[in-house]
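Worked example

This section walks through a single chain of length 301. The input is the sequence exactly as stored; nothing has been trimmed or padded.
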Amino acid sequence: MVRITGCGLHSGRSVTLDLHPAPAGHGIAFRRTDLPGALPIPARWDHVEQTPLNTRIVNGAGNSVSTIEHLMAALAGCGCTDVLVTLDGPEVPILDGSATPFVAAILDAGLRHLHGELPVIEILAPVEVREGAAFARLSPATLPQLHFAIDFDDAAIGRQERRLDLRNGAVIDELADSRTFCRLADVERMQADGLALGGTYENAVVVDGARVLTPGGLRHADEPVRHKMLDAVGDLATAGAPILGLYEGERAGHALTNRLLRALFAQPGSHRLRRATPALAALLPGAGLDGAAHATARRVA
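Given that input, the structure is written out below as tokens.
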């Protein structure tokens, strides 16, 4: 078991979260231990509410968990597919605003290989959703890939673009340490509305025009676009299986990526579920990561 304690970004409340190994085929699900008798909430696209600031999942009883995207990205980057997440609050801890603390805890505990076939969602035809100048698209590709672009008026961010092949631990090496970012005016507005109550300069990159206000500055010159890619990895992980294809995002956020998954599964012929042969499994995020046999699990063919 992996245990992590921290503060929720929006609630400002301290939360203790545990990751429990689960049997093959379980998938990733969350259960609120502060709600007696609460049923697990599948971390799946059809349980995601349309929210612009984070990814929130909800079950039929109305139980919800918010801000799951960084943990989901960490699980996807480590190749973890079958995990029960328990937590005693409404929101996953924000920690330092990146996925690195989750990744470190998972790898520290170790990974366990499960028997059984790993399903993979192969993209067969392009699927796209748009909202104004923003779009998100999935297209066929021989590798899992991301291509993302952002464009902000703030000179500290500006236009940034990056393409990444997700093999060989790239999520962990290239994206995991990139923190959530926001503009100072947005922070002030959210806090006035009762949101981002747990937000500090220690768990977000805050910019104001050309200035980076967070002590120590950026971890990467293009940290903002890397973080958007990290969010996309976490949101795509709610597909229920690794995706073999190219994800492209232009100014895309959580809601648009969820809309893309809904469009994908509503479009016949756009995808197929296939078995991950050893050769295909070697191309997926998390391939080659090993460790002690007592924590989160990953399935390989």
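What to look for: Confidence is low (pLDDT under 50) at residues 291-301.
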